[in-house]
Specification:
Strand 2 and strand 3 form a beta hairpin. The longest helix has 75 residues. The chain contains 5 helices and 6 strands; from the N terminus they run H-H-E-E-E-E-H-H-E-E-H. It has a domain of 153 residues. The chain is α+β, with helices and mostly antiparallel strands and 316 residues long.
Length: 316
């Protein structure tokens, strides 16, 4: 009986071990199946991402053009058009026919009309602190700075649209209790950190600037040509880029107002000069008229004298 009980126990243990083995094998198979699925999904995702990157690389120019015209129009709030763009692996960019519309409320249809733009970037410098631009050429840029009838400035209006899309970070209120405390180590390290810079080796720009005022109907035009070498532009990183654009737009607006004020003074002085010349000419004409009238009287008198002499000779 004892032997039979032992055999039964052995059989039970064997069946229990078999069930445990089957359970472990089932779990292992499930893990293996899950791992294969994850691997397949990862491989599919990676291959899809790679395919997208390849397509973006092949069709990068149409993608960039779409981004400039569609996304750029949404960001700026004005219509942007681009005829063509060509990029190359050596870092060169060739752009033709860029047109940026005026914001709503301004009379002229376009703010920017760029005929041609050429750029050559030193690719390795993109990973350094100083980005090097070998060549930057702007050909025949027509830029219109316009004031509407409410004296709003088109450049400032466009920058405000950008600020709505990309608002600068909120400034934290200053703590008066720390105003007299020395700078912390982190602040001193931030101040001593290297600044991002752009070095332009060759720069050539040709611009036709139009200053327009809808209220007075005045329009001033000035051609501007500028070229230089080794121009360095440093970004201290202390202000948000939209804030810097707003400051630049305010300076341009102030300069344009000064130009219009100077132009108005010149126009007023010119009108006064024209009126003065007109008065002189008018007086001269009156004087000449009197001289002609006097001459006519002299001629009439001479004619009468000749007629009298003729009659005398006839009587004889």
């Amino acid at each position: 009986m004892a032997d039979k009980d032992k055999k039964k126990d052995n059989i039970a243990d064997a069946s229990g071990n078999d069930s445990e083995k089957k359970e472990k094998k089932s779990k292992k198979d499930k893990k293996s199946s899950l791992g294969k699925r994850i691997l397949k999904i990862s491989a599919w995702t990676l291959s899809s991402l790679l395919a997208v990157l390849v397509l973006l690389f092949i069709f990068r120019d149409p993608v960039i053009k779409f981004g400039v015209t569609s996304i750029g129009s949404w960001v700026t709030g004005v219509e942007i058009e681009l005829d063509s763009i060509v990029t190359k692996l050596d870092g060169s960019v060739h752009l033709k026919g860029l047109r940026v519309g005026n914001p709503n409320g301004f009379a002229l249809p376009e703010m920017v009309d760029l005929e041609e733009f050429n750029l050559k970037i030193d690719i390795p410098s993109l990973t350094s602190q100083e980005i090097i631009i070998e060549n930057l050429e702007v050909k025949n840029l027509l830029f219109t700075a316009e004031f509407d009838k409410k004296t709003n400035f088109n450049v400032t209006t466009l920058v405000k649209n950008l600020e709505q899309r990309f608002p600068p970070p909120a400034e934290t209120p200053a703590d008066d209790s720390k105003t007299n405390e020395p700078d912390t180590q982190e602040q001193s390290e931030a101040d001593s950190a290297p600044q991002q810079a752009v070095m332009i080796r060759n720069l050539a720009v040709s611009i036709k600037l139009i200053l327009a005022h809808d209220l007075s109907g005045a329009e001033l035009t000035a051609p501007i040509s500028y070229s230089t070498t080794d121009l360095q532009v440093v970004d201290d990183g202390k202000e948000h880029w939209t804030k810097k654009l707003a400051d630049a737009a305010a300076e341009l607006e102030s300069w344009c107002k000064a130009c219009f004020n100077a132009g108005e003074f010149i126009v007023t002085a010119g009108m006064e000069a024209v009126e003065g010349i007109g008065n002189v000419l008018k007086d001269g004409f009156n004087s000449g008229k009197k001289v002609l009238e006097g001459g006519k009287k002299v001629l009439d008198g001479g004619k009468n004298l000749l007629d009298s002499a003729t009659n005398i000779f006839k009587k004889k």
